[in-house]
Amino acid sequence: MSKPFFKLLTELSSRKWVSQVTGAFARSKASRMFIPRFAQTYGIRIEDAEKHVKDYKSLNDFFTRRLKPGLRPIHEDQTRVVSPVDAMITGIGDIKEGLIVNVKGQDYTIEELLNRSPRTVNYKNGFYFVLYLSPTDYHRIHSPVTGDILEKEHVLGKVYPVNEFGLRHMKRVLSRNERLITFIQHNAGEVAVVKVGALNVSSIQYVKPLPKTLERGQELAYFEFGSTVVLLFEDDMFEPRPDLKLGSKVKMGEDLGRFLDK
Q1: Which of 83, 117, 139, 142 is catalytic?
Q2: pLDDT digits (tens, 9 = 90+) for 205-245
Q3: Of 226, 220, 145, whose CA–CA distance to 190 is shortest?
Q4: Looking at CB atoms within 10 Å, which of 18, 40, 197, 206 has the fewest?
Q5: Which of 31, 137, 227, 255 is catalytic?
């Protein structure tokens, strides 16, 4: 099939109600029977899950599973930023005059991504990661730093896929999709954790209760299907680990880089 036809199908299936219907089924008891096949299809390590696979009440319950304690150790050096998720890096680099350049061939403005927040000015020449979570991955989102939650915003939007096809062929999906934005104040500066919804993501949920102060590695939110986290660092705040590049896989709690001395 041609690329225009795939784009048309994606446009038609990216309505929020489609994801809501899919999500309603995934939360139903009837969906339990699909857990073993889902795990097999995506190569999910069910032995890593906190509970036995038979103890999950629905496909969504399994998808948002916690892991057994100790499987995601948090990097011990407090001067390091840790990955908030298990993911593949699909974008990494300096923010240039408010622009994220060439994420799968497309440019994004920080202003759009942050829904024209007044805080946009803090990230004009900062640093960014785009972290893609596939259905295989663990889908809970943790804080990359220790700090206070300054502000949070829920931005309504589309639910285009954020996989290779979506990022490359759909128009600026990261700034058009539904987003949950959390601004965190660390001693070294401000960090924005932008959680981007995607096709068949019925919702992005904060943990309850959501504390005002987060520790590195503490649970912050979770996706109810595969999606993306965009991590933004304030100007002159962060230096990435030198070996990280496009296509690198990271685990939650793994070192992403260091805070710069000021």
Answers
A1: 142
A2: 899 999 999 999 999 999 876 688 999 999 999 999 999 99
A3: 145
A4: 40
A5: 227
Strands (E), the chain: 80-82, 87-94, 99-103, 106-109, 127-133, 140-142, 147-155, 179-186, 189-196, 204-206, 213-214, 219-223, 227-233, 238-240, 249-250, 255-259
Of the candidates 235, 244, 245, the one whose C-alpha atom is nearest the C-alpha of residue 119 is 235
Enumerate the β-bridge partners of residue 87. 250
Active-site residue (options: 86, 137, 139, 202): 86
Residue 5 has pLDDT above 50, yes or no: no
- 56, 58, 59, 62: CA torsion to nearest 10: -30
Q: Say whether 117 is catalytic.
A: no
**228 SS3 class:** strand
Catalytic-residue membership of 86: yes
How many Å is the Cα radius of gyration of the chain?
A: 18
